[in-house]
Amino acid sequence: MIRSVKSFDLKHKRILIRVDFNVPMENEIVMDDFRIRSAIPTIKFCLSAGASVILMSHLGRPKGKVVPELSLIPVGEKLAELMEMPIKFSDDCVSEDATNVSFGLHPGEIHLLENLRFHDGETENSIEFSSKLAKHGQIYINDAFGTAHRAHASNTGVTRYFTHKGIGFLVDKELQYLEKVIQNPKSPLVLVLGGAKIASKLGLIQKFIEEADTILIGGGMAFTFLKARGVPVGGSLVDDKMIETAKRILRSARNQKVELVFPDDVTIAQEISESALQSVSQINKIPDDQMGLDIGPDTTLKFAEIIKNAGTVIWNGPMGVFETPGYEKGSLGVAQALAELHENEGIAVVGGGDTAAAVEQFDLSNEMSHVSTGGGASLELLSGNKLPAIAALES
Ligand code: AMP
84-134: per-residue pLDDT in tens? Predict the structure, then answer.
C-alpha cells in the first residue's frame, strides 16, 4: 500500500519533500513556473497541518558539479513570491549547516535545498548521500512524478531511512489517472499516438494493442508505419531502423480486436518553416520533394469524431510539427476533441513532454481530465511498468 500525505500526523514534524522544480530557465530567470505552482498544494497542506517543510529537487544536468547557472536560488525566489512568505535556502543540500537549518525549523517554515545533482551521489543513488539527505526530515513525501522512473538517491535511496513515507497530491493524481483509470477504463478506450520516435513508445503500443479498441496514429511516426505497409511517403520522416518493428506491430494488431487508424491526408511542405509553401495531399500522393508535417483536415475531423465518441482517450505525441506555425492544426483539432470529451464526462488524459507542451500552447490544459507532468514516467506507467520511486514507497 502507498500512503498519501493526508494519512500522517504531521504536527510539529519536519517533512522532507522531493519536488520537481526542474523548470525552464533563461539567464537565471524562471521562464515557466507551472511545476513550482503544481507543488504548492502539498507544501501548503503540510504547513497548515503544523509541520515544517524541507524541499529538494534537481535542476538540469550539472553532472555532479556545482554549476552556478543551475542553482535553485531563482526557483526559491519564485516560490517565496508564490507562497508570499520567506524561504530558507542552503547552498549545499547535504552539508552540516544545511542539516542544522532543517533541525532548527519552526512549524510553518520552508527550507529549500540547493540542486541535488551538484552531487554525483544523487543519480548514482549512493547510500552515503541518501543517508545524509534523510537526516533533514522525519517523514518523507515524494511529489516529483517527472523523475519517478529513475532510481535516484532523493526518490529511492532515501526511502530506506523512513518508516513514515508516502506521496503528495501531485503524484497521487498522476497514479490515479495513469494507473487506476487505465486498469478499469471507461470504454471505448482510444490511444492517440504521434510524435517523431516510435522506439520510446513501443511499450505503450504493445500494451494498448491488447487493451484498446482503437489506436489513432498521426505525427511523424505514421510514416514509418505507412512505409512498412508499402505506401509511398515522399520525403517524410521515416525511422528506417523501425520498419521491421512496425511490420510486427501491424501483424500483431491483426490478431487483436484493436483497430489501427492512419491518416488519409497530410499537410505537406518542402521544409519545416513557417514561410514554406504548404498544401494538403492525399496520404499516398506525397511528392518526393515534399514531407508530411501535420495530419490533414479530413484526418483531423476523422480523429476528432473517434475521440469524441470514446469513453477514455490517452494521447501521447503531437500530430505534427506543432512548434512551427502552420503545422499545429492537427494537434489543435485533437486537443479540442479531447476537451469536448472531458466536458461530456469522458476521460481525456494527456501524456507529458511535447504533448503537454502542445496542449499548453493551445491554452487547453485546464480542459483535460489530466495532463501528466512527466514524459518518461507517464510512458512507463501507461505501459504497465512499475516506477522505482513509487515501488520504494510500498509498505
Ligand atoms: P516525440 O518525442 O517522439 O513525441 O516527438 C515529438 C516531436 O515530433 C515534436 O517536436 C514534433 O515537432 C515532431 N513531429 C511531429 N510530427 C512530425 C512530422 N510529421 N515530421 C517531423 N517531426 C514531427
Answer: 999 999 999 999 999 999 999 999 999 999 999 999 999 999 999 999 999
Which DSSP state fits 4? B
CA 218 to centroid of ligand 1, rounded, Å: 10
Which secondary-structure segment (H or E) carries 18? strand 14-18
Catalytic residue among 6, 173, 197, 247: 197
- State which amino acid sits at residue 208: F
**Cell numbers describing residue 229:** 505497409
According to DSSP, residue 19 is labeled -
Distance (Å) from CA 220 to ligand 1 centroid: 5
For 243-300, give the secondary structure using H, E and C: HHHHHHHHHHHHCCCCEEECCCEEEEECCCCCCCCCEEEEHHHCCCCCEEEEECHHHH
3-state secondary structure of 339: helix
For the domain spanning 5-173, the CATH number is 3.40.50.1260
Res 204: pLDDT: 93
**Identical fold, 5-173 and 185-382:** yes
Q: In the structure, which protein residues have their CB atom closer than 6 angstroms to any atom of ligand 1?
A: 194-197, 200, 219-220, 237, 292-293, 317-318, 320-321, 323, 354
Could you say which architecture CATH assigns to the domain 185-382?
3-Layer(aba) Sandwich (3.40)
DSSP 159: G
| pLDDT surpasses 90 at 395 | no
**Domain regions of the chain by residue span:** 5-173, 185-382
Peptide bond into 188 cis (omega under 30): yes
- What amino acid occupies position 206? Q
What does pTM read for this prediction? 0.90
